[in-house]
């Protein structure tokens, strides 16, 4: 099987390691079936799309809507390289799955408006599939129900989708929770790789990053620990199963 390229942009070692392990667990991929690029630390390796099964982009503390002069150098480089990669991925309609940060990268590349109109605090939300989502082959293969719980936590989101995007799932606070471009490129605002242990780890790591009031951390952990998260993880396994070659 050709490997999947997993791209991370998490400068924090513990967060990067946790995301990597979660992606392997919920995709079902063995480590030797993954090319792992920590794009915040080193340039993207030269990749030929013909040598890959697909691309998965994880979340990030980066915000694509921040002014360029406020972005650190590693973020500006990472975003430029992701943009160049998408210049090849989109015309080829190559299998792509972006979780959280993937909404910003794929969305911005295609002309979506991504800003701070629809932030969501760290929480478990209800995601509801649209009619297009109910018909989408990847979602159907995943077996997720029409409404399901998922973890979120973001400062920016899609305000207006690009004309070529298909809205697949929505939420009450942030209306764009999942979309598709072409037939094979997907992005979610929610985190399909996060279970309770994963979100609790990130709450600790990002306590001072502005996602929530640090004084409420213990209460927040108690709240998310009661969430019933389950169905959402099958999206990652369905993506790998559908596109492995």
UniProtKB/TrEMBL annotation:
GO terms for cellular component: cytosol. SUPFAM superfamilies: Class I glutamine amidotransferase-like. Keywords: Glutamine amidotransferase. Pfam families: GATase. Residues 49-194 form the Glutamine amidotransferase domain. InterPro entries: ChyE-like, Class_I_gatase-like, GATASE. Coiled coil: none annotated. This is Glutamine amidotransferase. It comes from Acidipropionibacterium acidipropionici.
